User: Fold this.
Amino acid sequence: MEETDILKIVKLEKEHMIEAEQLALDNYREECSKVNTLSEVTKLPELECFVQNEFGVAAFEGDTMVGFLGCYNPWDGAFDSNVKGTFTPIHAHGCVKENRARIYERMYQQMAKLLVEQGVLYHGITLYAHDADAISAYFHNGFGHRCSDAIRRMELIQDIMPTKGISFAELPAREIKQVRELRRKLKDHMGASCCFMYTTDKEFEAWLVNRESNGSRIFVAKDKDVPVAFVEICDEAETFVTELPSVKNICGAFCMPEYRGRQIYQNLINYTIEVLQKEGYQYLGVDYESFNPTARHFWPKYFEPYTCSVTRRIDEGVLKNE
Assistant:
């Protein structure tokens, strides 16, 4: 493909998989050294799918692989836009530490060329939160922060005062509809400034029916039997870390604005942790949008971020040059 100096960027091939997995594991362990809550992992999800779509690239110095970068098959309407997009999960890339920023820049330069040639204009990638070199490389290539994953041990939040007049419970499946109004308020919040993740009423109703039948668990805080906050718990979320059997994940959360600032939500999290801890779970994960100020200021107080997902939207005008 492309070669400058001693760094060579080539097409990602099946025979690169062993080296690629090792690089990805090394990068995960590097993040584990910064976030000691993360669990030891010896095997990553399958990587060969990132070879098959022919967008993947690898970086070599001589005969040594120093980096690789893959992405999922592109899809239409990425992030509710009118263009095709693709996404690189945390296990679909890896890079040696030395000269990391430059290697990532070169790999993305080649992959972006291949993607844009196929009309794929929305690019996303999940990076490790403490990998300053990788984050810098993508920031300088036009990416902005979109969301984060964070984790904590299944241990109670300390120094939280009890909340008078508020009760906590897990809703039976037949009573999950009690949080419909809270879900609607969450939808409205995410559609407002500065999140702008707009959902039509029709889309929301379809999503609601699907959500209420997906088997997730709902924990609530109630004021006189009326839910004023909820937390939704799922088995899986956005990264391979969340799929470990010792991990449960927060996949929905909201507290009525007039009940904030009273530590109700912290007590709700503690109630949820008490239940899950008794069931043998060891870690609790959460993912949140970085452009949601409420979430961005709340979750890092109690959960430690370990990823930084970034996105780039390329203008359609580039397609006129084809």
Q: What stands out?
A: The longest strand covers residues 144-153. The chain is about 30% helix and 30% strand. The two ends are 19 Å apart (CA to CA).
